[in-house]
Design brief:
By secondary structure, the chain is of the alpha+beta class. It is built from six helices and 13 strands.
């Protein structure tokens, strides 16, 4: 599988959410904090239903142990926008991968409820039809894989997707005041019990992936989410080992919640 495809899949798995265990608490100083997954999920979801839209920026790198300190094997960057509606989440995003010593390669995608469009790195400059419409029900395995990857991207763009999916297998290990670019925020450290997640997962493909991770020696996955005083997600961070590639460290920043964004399919004349 090409590296850019694998990273698209990992991006969808790496920006995971939050969880809980003890009752709600309020710190003597700083912002209020919650330690129950459902309370946290309800608060963030309610805020998103009000704001609806946000700008997303992703930055990260892959360390493979063959380069010196500060010299990653690959850097990952991306910008885009998301819109949360009752019918689903829409995303317009461009991801750029830069291998050490090579030219950057960009992948664009637009995902709307029931529609997936990809602009692959193989698209040539000046190509009048650089976009491909992907059908999740296609008989072609490669096309179904691309549709699944696009779904993973949507899940990663929505900060509550994995919070909801793995809530019953997670706990908040820590909640601390930690401003993001000058904005007061609470940093939540979340731990997912992969054994428990696999037991509870209903989708066979996802359950198989979780079981494979457990069989490979991974029992827990940790991630971090920053939430501001208005219950808006403002940042998430995660690290994940990718066999045969290295360790991916990824940060996603959310900005301008509530600012109108335009997410539309590419012109029909540009779609294959």
């Amino acid at each position: 599988m090409p590296t850019w495809i694998l990273l698209l899949a990992v991006l969808g798995a790496s920006l995971t959410g939050c969880a809980g265990a003890p009752p709600q608490q309020t710190a003597a100083r700083g912002l209020p904090k919650v330690y129950d997954v459902r309370e946290l999920l309800d608060a963030v979801t309610a805020r998103q239903r009000t704001d609806r839209t946000a700008i997303l920026q992703v930055a990260g790198h892959v360390e493979d142990g063959t380069h010196g300190p500060g010299e990653p094997a690959m850097t990952v960057g991306g910008t885009g926008a998301l819109r949360i509606e009752d019918s689903g989440v829409s995303v317009d995003f461009t991801q750029t991968l830069t291998h050490s010593g090579e030219a950057p390669k960009s992948t664009g995608f637009v995902v709307l409820p029931g529609q997936v469009f990809l602009r692959l790195p193989s698209a040539q400059p000046g190509d009048p039809r650089p976009w491909t419409k992907v059908d999740a029900a296609s008989g072609d395995a490669a096309e179904r894989t691309l549709a699944t990857l696009a779904t993973n991207i949507v899940d990663s763009a929505d900060p509550t997707a994995d919070i909801s999916r793995f809530a019953d297998a997670s706990l908040v290990a820590d909640a601390s005041d930690d401003p993001v670019d000058g904005t007061p925020a609470v940093r939540y450290t979340i731990v997912v019990d992969l054994n428990r997640a696999a037991e509870l997962e209903r989708e066979p493909d996802v359950r198989a992936q979780l079981q494979q991770q457990v069989a490979g020696g991974m029992t827990r996955i940790s991630s971090t989410l920053w939430v501001d005083a208005e219950n808006r997600p403002v940042r998430s961070e995660a690290r994940q080992d990718m066999p045969g590639i290295g360790t991916l460290a990824m940060t996603a920043d959310y900005r301008s919640w509530g600012t109108p964004v335009l997410i539309t399919p590419p012109p029909a004349s540009q779609v294959r």
